[in-house]
Amino acid sequence: MKRIIISGGGTGGHIFPAISIADALRDSGTDCEILFVGANGKMEMERVPKAGYKIIGLPVAGLQRKLTLKNLALPFKVIESIRKAKAIISDFKPDAVVGVGGYASAPLLWAASSMKIPCLIQEQNSYAGLTNRKLAGRVEKICVAYDGMDKFFPAGKILFTGNPIRKDINPPTPGQRAEGYKYYGLDPEKKTLFVVGGSLGARTLNESVQKWILERGDKAGFQILWQSGKYYKNEIEGFLKQHPCPAVKNCTFIDRMDLAYAVADVIVSRAGAGTISELCVEGKATIFVPSPNVAEDHQRHNAMALVEKDAAMMVLDADAREKLMDTAEALLADPGKIALMEQNIIKLGRKHAAEEIATEVLKLCNN
């Protein structure tokens, strides 16, 4: 029996890779007991149990960017979290510890490394997060998804594995494409733009589509599958009631992402690391609109890593309302450019990242 702690969270970009690694360990053929450690009150405390794993929360919190009294309590929370992390490690007795980034992983990895437990961290982004940069000197292995990460981490510790993705993500088949048209009520004779803003939605993407509907929607030569997000549900439904557009199929949430990817000729998306990893495996021509509201502007760095390889295009958030839909329309009309982007992006796909990371974790256990 191998005992493994996985720590991190705060956002889906950290939680879903962590769960994928846990699933790969569970399915590896090695008998594993897995414990998650996260931050109290954060989404991992709900999502991890739903995935079938036990989780313990620490009182750690992130540093607020604005001056606030909450920052005064941070050192005390960190000290208490390290104390609790050491108690968890003493009780669980892990053979190895995995950190997936985010401030929730810092106390646990710090405590584990000080107690001589072998540790591995997984960095999803092309611009390494602060927590992982600080922990790099204390861990045995660092799994990354982008080239050039030796500017953040010791080169001898780096393993290029890619980011873990969901098992149902694969290059689409002709059968899926036909099923997708039917499932989403789309016209198989028209080209399809898939605009995806994430589960909550993205205001910039929504406003770009709304502007297009008002100015050109009735003249559209293509169709849009528009995932506008639950945060904007009432607003977008009200807008479409006032301005109906037959070329647009709106969904608050996409429950069959595999079929949405299958019907898309071009995709417009934010540039989170997990999303990019999925699109690389899907092999889809994509225009990224990086969110400006993330730490260290890492979405722009993620997108640029693909743009520099002619594997994607990018429109900055500040320019999107004026340029995004024009850029998408021009790309839809250029099958040669689409084909080139598809050929280049699929070369970057790493379907079995979770299994590769799990293998490295088990090696640490055995050592």
What does this structure look like?
The protein is of the alpha/beta class. The chain has two domains: 2-164 and 351-366, Glycogen Phosphorylase B (Rossmann fold); 174-346, Glycogen Phosphorylase B (Rossmann fold), CATH 3.40.50. It has helices spanning 12-26, 44-50, 70-92, 105-114, 130-135, 174-184, 203-216, 233-242, 257-263, 273-282, 298-307, 317-332, 335-346, 353-366; strands at residues 2-7, 32-39, 54-58, 96-99, 119-122, 141-144, 158-160, 192-196, 223-227, 248-251, 266-269, 286-288, 313-314. A seven-stranded parallel β-sheet has the order 3-2-1-4-5-6-7, with helices on both faces. The chain is elongated. The protein starts with a strand and ends with a helix. Residues 62-67 have low confidence and may be disordered.
